[in-house]
């Protein structure tokens, strides 16, 4: 959005800045890092970017199968265990906007390379953590690295692939890699845990990061944004602090003191900081995010649908991994194989998503996705202490397909509702919602399981009070306490802990089903059909002619409303700081 300028400054702004052309292994590029020839090496750049994204996607799920081993080795409490798992998505979500906009100022490749280094160091730190607190810090540092990597990869892709058709294909590959990473994460973790200790699931990141740093420095072009307006680092830090404090309040509530000062104070302070952030963004000429867009029915509803969808996915995936290993007694590798249908079904839904969207429209597609997921969740309440493979596979397939269908329709509706020149900011809000939903989902559903699990363990007759209190922290710790007790008391504690965990799982599934049905009702506010973007050459009710000289070059749209060279397409990532999922 252009600021107020003098006539001379306006004329100067209309003249593109000439920067020296540079060449490199990926081919010649102009000053903005856009490739100007038909060099095939830009596909090599895509491989480097996708390799780094693969690690980030794998790291989001690889820990799920290692949770029992971590619990046995480090003996974390229930809240510490939750922090170990969701420190990564929480920190990553908090910092996406900060590092996305930082890349516009200092260079996206520079931020990406710093993210590689941070991710590698944090992986080594996590692998050799000797206390739960150290592992939590390491996971948070991994989130910092992930927040550097994710926006930068998609921003660089836009510059490496100036041709719109090739760029769409590249982004499709990028999205597929993200889905594959989520699918193979449990498999990689399970295979490593068959032969090594739990820290090996983090060491796998280091060799590839050591390879990505020199390759990225050699192959990737540097690029920056137009740097229009000052960088609101204060606003980004306020948003990050607010998100962290809200999640802290949720976690403290799961520690047994929902109305205590340690719960209410962080939660209320976090809400106040987020309100301050929204107010600050509304008043700024160049905000980090378009908070006003959240008040529009289609945009705000789509963001809410993303949060609810991911809340169900991530929380249930973690609980399911613990159920498969600790209740059914499967190995980590077997657990990864059992969870594979969920991710494969999600990939299949992504492949047919565009066709479904054209036929059904956003409203029907998202509603059906929520309902399909709710049916899957309710079906999974039939699991118990005995293995039922057919029920698990069928439930996971429905769960994965329904969740991805909902995400696909929600993202498309959100991006289509946003003005074209705000599409990057809209994508950033969507990805932040995705990561925030992951953090809240693990906290909320984990809290529900613990609340339903603990009373049954404490009520076992013949078990000393201290031992019962320790066993109430987690199922893994209950097994350890039962082993120390031995005899009939130990067997009784083990059986009660297993039964209580299944009860907690059923309770979490019912809560998740309720949230999914709420999402289906909310999705009724989405558009019935796909509406073509910018029919009359306007963006958010403001015509090109009203936006001043230079708007055509900045927006990528000609004054007659037709797409120009820089125009993006719905579903693509358009600006740094934005992540678009399929």
UniProtKB/TrEMBL annotation:
<feature type="transmembrane region" description="Helical">
    <location>
        <begin position="111"/>
        <end position="130"/>
    </location>
</feature>
<feature type="transmembrane region" description="Helical">
    <location>
        <begin position="508"/>
        <end position="526"/>
    </location>
</feature>
<protein>
    <submittedName>
        <fullName>MFS transporter</fullName>
    </submittedName>
</protein>
<feature type="compositionally biased region" description="Basic and acidic residues">
    <location>
        <begin position="533"/>
        <end position="562"/>
    </location>
</feature>
<feature type="region of interest" description="Disordered">
    <location>
        <begin position="532"/>
        <end position="582"/>
    </location>
</feature>
<keyword id="KW-0046">Antibiotic resistance</keyword>
<dbReference type="GO" id="GO:0046677">
    <property type="term" value="P:response to antibiotic"/>
</dbReference>
<feature type="domain" description="Major facilitator superfamily (MFS) profile">
    <location>
        <begin position="45"/>
        <end position="531"/>
    </location>
</feature>
<feature type="compositionally biased region" description="Low complexity">
    <location>
        <begin position="1"/>
        <end position="13"/>
    </location>
</feature>
<keyword id="KW-1003">Cell membrane</keyword>
<dbReference type="InterPro" id="IPR020846">
    <property type="entry name" value="MFS_dom"/>
</dbReference>
<dbReference type="GO" id="GO:0022857">
    <property type="term" value="F:transmembrane transporter activity"/>
</dbReference>
<feature type="transmembrane region" description="Helical">
    <location>
        <begin position="195"/>
        <end position="219"/>
    </location>
</feature>
<feature type="transmembrane region" description="Helical">
    <location>
        <begin position="336"/>
        <end position="353"/>
    </location>
</feature>
<feature type="transmembrane region" description="Helical">
    <location>
        <begin position="136"/>
        <end position="157"/>
    </location>
</feature>
<feature type="region of interest" description="Disordered">
    <location>
        <begin position="1"/>
        <end position="35"/>
    </location>
</feature>
<keyword id="KW-0472">Membrane</keyword>
<feature type="transmembrane region" description="Helical">
    <location>
        <begin position="262"/>
        <end position="278"/>
    </location>
</feature>
<feature type="transmembrane region" description="Helical">
    <location>
        <begin position="81"/>
        <end position="99"/>
    </location>
</feature>
<keyword id="KW-1133">Transmembrane helix</keyword>
<feature type="transmembrane region" description="Helical">
    <location>
        <begin position="231"/>
        <end position="250"/>
    </location>
</feature>
<dbReference type="Pfam" id="PF07690">
    <property type="entry name" value="MFS_1"/>
</dbReference>
<keyword id="KW-0812">Transmembrane</keyword>
<feature type="transmembrane region" description="Helical">
    <location>
        <begin position="299"/>
        <end position="324"/>
    </location>
</feature>
<dbReference type="InterPro" id="IPR036259">
    <property type="entry name" value="MFS_trans_sf"/>
</dbReference>
<feature type="transmembrane region" description="Helical">
    <location>
        <begin position="365"/>
        <end position="384"/>
    </location>
</feature>
<feature type="transmembrane region" description="Helical">
    <location>
        <begin position="432"/>
        <end position="453"/>
    </location>
</feature>
<dbReference type="GO" id="GO:0005886">
    <property type="term" value="C:plasma membrane"/>
</dbReference>
<feature type="transmembrane region" description="Helical">
    <location>
        <begin position="169"/>
        <end position="189"/>
    </location>
</feature>
<feature type="transmembrane region" description="Helical">
    <location>
        <begin position="390"/>
        <end position="411"/>
    </location>
</feature>
<feature type="transmembrane region" description="Helical">
    <location>
        <begin position="43"/>
        <end position="69"/>
    </location>
</feature>
<dbReference type="InterPro" id="IPR011701">
    <property type="entry name" value="MFS"/>
</dbReference>
<keyword id="KW-0813">Transport</keyword>
């Amino acid at each position: 959005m252009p600021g107020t300028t003098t006539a001379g400054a306006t004329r100067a702004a209309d003249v593109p800045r000439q920067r020296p052309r540079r060449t490199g292994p990926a081919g010649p590029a102009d000053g903005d890092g856009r490739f100007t020839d038909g060099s095939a090496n830009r596909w090599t750049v895509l491989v480097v970017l996708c390799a780094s994204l693969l690690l980030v996607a794998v790291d989001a799920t690889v820990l799920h199968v290692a949770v029992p081993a971590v619990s046995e080795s480090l003996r974390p409490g229930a809240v510490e265990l939750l922090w170990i798992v969701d420190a990564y998505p929480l920190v990553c979500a908090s910092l996406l906007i900060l590092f996305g906009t930082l890349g516009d100022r200092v260079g996206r490749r520079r931020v990406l390379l710093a993210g590689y280094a941070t991710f590698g160091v944090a992986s080594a730190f996590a692998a050799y953590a000797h206390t739960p607190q150290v592992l939590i810090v390491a996971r948070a540092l991994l989130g910092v690295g992930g927040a550097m990597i994710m926006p930068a990869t998609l921003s660089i892709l836009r510059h490496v692939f100036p041709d719109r058709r090739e760029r769409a294909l590249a982004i499709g590959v990028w999205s597929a890699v993200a889905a594959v990473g989520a699918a193979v994460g449990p498999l990689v973790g399970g295979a490593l845990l068959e032969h090594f200790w739990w820290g090996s699931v983090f060491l796998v990141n280091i060799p590839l990061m050591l390879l990505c740093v020199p390759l990225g420095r050699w192959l990737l072009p540097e690029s920056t944004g137009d740097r229009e307006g000052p960088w609101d680092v204060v606003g980004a830090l306020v948003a990050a602090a607010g998100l962290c404090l809200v999640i802290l309040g949720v976690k403290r509530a799961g520690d047994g003191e929902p109305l205590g000062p340690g719960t209410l104070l962080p939660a209320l302070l976090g809400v106040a900081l987020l309100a301050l952030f929204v107010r600050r963004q509304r008043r700024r000429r160049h905000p980090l995010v378009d908070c006003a867009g959240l008040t529009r029915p289609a945009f705000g509803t789509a963001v809410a649908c993303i949060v609810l969808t991911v809340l169900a996915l991530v929380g249930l995936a973690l609980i399911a991994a613990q159920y498969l290993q600790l209740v059914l007694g499967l190995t980590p590798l077997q657990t990864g194989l059992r969870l594979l249908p969920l991710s494969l079904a999600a990939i299949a839904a992504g492949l047919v998503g565009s066709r479904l969207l054209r036929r059904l429209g956003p409203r029907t597609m998202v509603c059906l996705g929520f309902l399909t997921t709710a049916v899957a969740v309710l079906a999974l309440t039939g699991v118990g202490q005995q293995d039922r493979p057919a029920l698990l596979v069928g439930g996971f397939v429905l769960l994965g397909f329904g969740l991805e269908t909902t995400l696909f329709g929600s993202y498309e509706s959100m991006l289509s509702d946003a003005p074209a020149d705000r599409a990057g900011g809209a994508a950033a809000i969507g990805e932040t919602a995705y990561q925030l939903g992951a953090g809240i989902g693990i906290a909320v559903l984990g809290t529900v399981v613990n609340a339903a699990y603990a009373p049954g363990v404490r009520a076992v007759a013949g078990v000393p009070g201290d031992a019962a209190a320790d066993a109430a922290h987690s199922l893994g710790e209950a097994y350890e306490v039962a082993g120390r007790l031995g005899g009939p008391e130990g067997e009784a504690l083990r059986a009660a802990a297993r039964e209580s965990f299944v009860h907690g799982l059923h309770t979490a599934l019912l809560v998740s089903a309720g949230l999914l049905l709420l999402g289906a009702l909310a999705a009724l506010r989405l558009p019935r059909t796909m509406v073509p973007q910018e029919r009359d050459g306007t963006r958010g009710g403001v015509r090109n002619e009203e936006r001043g000289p230079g708007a055509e070059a900045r927006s990528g749209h000609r004054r007659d409303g037709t797409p120009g060279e820089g125009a993006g397409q719905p579903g693509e990532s358009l600006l740094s700081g934005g992540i678009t999922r399929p």
